[in-house]
Design brief:
Elements: H1 2-36, H2 38-45, H3 50-80, H4 83-94, H5 98-131, H6 139-170, H7 175-198, E1 205-207, H8 212-224, E2 231-234, E3 245-248, E4 255-259, H9 260-265, H10 268-283, H11 286-309, H12 312-316, H13 324-341, H14 343-365, H15 369-382, H16 390-396, H17 402-410
Parallel strand pairs: 2-4
Antiparallel strand pairs: 1-2, 3-4
Family: Belongs to the peptidase M48 family.
Domain CAAX prenyl protease 1 N-terminal: 30-203
Domain Peptidase M48: 209-411
């Protein structure tokens, strides 16, 4: 048993330590490179105060890594004090149905993680984001959003957990394959549920109609050979000063969403270029490719998890009852680091797709400079770090770094 504990701690604590060290390396690399390229930042990106960008990068990185370390410490504490095993046993003793007891265990774990995140989210919102003039939330709105998002999370976890536990019981030999199908259905459903059910709980969506913005949108749609009636501006500024845009859904549920902050920060041609880039993800099949990659990844991890769930030592390590819900949660702790270390593989697909989307936007606009200008403006407005360390980029970046994209877009 000692060997299992050593392997577990090496994998879980070692992976956390690796990514904390990688984040620190990235901060040092950014500090050095930003100072070396202050002239490029000012002339190309419009960053007149590089120290402000670096301060924001340091603080957000430190907060994120502190959270990961604290979460790991709490998880290990709960496991090694026997609290996890006792809580699972209590749930199964108190609830007559094994399925409902398993769902209760999943929901309890989700609620515990949500609660653990609250102080970190509050610090990020009211200390970091507020200090850099991004935060637009009041404490009351923050609490309201947390309660609503937690309730939504409980519903999703309960539904997904019940489906997975059902297939575990129904297909004991091949449940990993059936569970992969459940994940596939879930991913498809989120394409509709998130923009049409979840986000409207927090933001207002105004359809873009009869305006110069609508004309600009229709123009780029026509150039791209694309049709979509559902184009909305989301009042992201009610929560944050950050800006973005996204495309989601499929078939009749397609929807283009522009943050109001994005509309305010970009001129018309820059906005069109961003929209053309987003449309490329649909036109080139990137959404389906990404979904297929996620399903394959989930299938591989569930295949590994099946062997773990069927191993008695997994439960004996922490004195947990040998029930599927406990096994799945414990297995997740083993496979999550594996997923993190495998992220460069999936990132390669996303990087290729992002480059193709940039090329599509250039073809649609007939010029790469509008998208380059949009990227510069977004980097400046959002205080993004344009110079990631190459190793950090390998594990964390699904878009090429901004300097690389601008160089490609503006080269003759």
């Amino acid at each position: 048993m000692l060997a299992y504990h050593a392997a577990f701690l090496l994998l879980v604590a070692g992976s956390t330590g690796f990514f904390v060290a990688l984040a620190a390396l990235n901060v040092r690399h950014a500090d050095r490179t930003v100072r070396e390229r202050t002239e490029w930042l000012a002339d190309t990106v419009g960053v007149e105060d590089p120290e402000r960008l670096l301060d924001y990068h340091r603080l957000t990185t430190a907060a994120s890594q502190l959270q990961s370390v604290v979460v790991l410490a709490v998880v290990l504490l709960v496991l090694y004090t026997g609290l996890f095993g006792d809580a699972v046993a209590a749930a199964y003793d108190a609830i007559g149905s094994d399925l409902l007891a398993g769902v209760a265990v999943f929901v309890g774990a989700a609620l515990a993680f949500q609660l653990l995140r609250v102080p970190f989210d509050a610090f990020e919102t009211f200390a970091v984001e507020d200090a850099f003039d991004f935060n637009e939330q009041s404490p009351t709105l923050f609490v309201r959003d947390k309660l609503v998002s937690t309730a939504f999370t409980v519903v999703l976890v309960a539904a997904l957990g019940a489906a997975v536990l059902f297939v575990v019981e129904t297909f004991p030999e091949w449940w990993w394959l059936a569970a992969t199908g459940v994940v596939a259905v879930f991913l498809l459903a989120t394409q509709v549920i998130v923009p049409r059910v979840f986000l409207p709980l927090f933001y207002d969506f105004e359809p873009v109609e009869d305006s110069s913005l609508r004309e600009a949108v229709d123009e780029v749609f026509e150039r791209a050979g694309f049709t979509c009636d559902d184009v909305y501006v989301m009042n992201a500024s009610s929560r944050s000063g950050h800006s973005n845009a996204f495309f989601t859904g499929f078939g009749a549920t397609k929807r283009v969403v522009l943050f109001d902050t994005l509309v305010d920060q970009l001129d018309e041609t820059e906005l069109q270029s961003v929209l053309a880039h987003e449309l490329a993800h649909w036109k080139k099949g990137h959404i389906w490719q990404g979904m297929a990659a996620s399903i394959v990844q989930a299938g591989v991890l569930l295949f590994v998890a099946q062997f773990l769930v069927e191993s008695s030592w997994l439960y004996a390590m922490f004195g947990a009852p040998e029930v599927p819900a406990a096994g799945l949660l414990l297995a997740a702790l083993w496979v999550e680091p594996v997923s993190q270390f495998a992220s460069p593989l999936s990132n390669k697909l996303w990087l290729a797709n992002e480059r193709e989307a940039d090329a599509f936007a250039v073809d649609v606009m007939g010029d790469g400079r509008p998208l380059a200008g949009a990227l510069a403006a977004l980097t400046s407005e959002n205080l993004g770090n344009p110079f990631p360390h190459p190793l950090y980029e390998t594990f964390h970046y699904q878009h090429p770094p901004v300097p690389e994209r601008i160089r490609y877009l503006t080269e003759d």
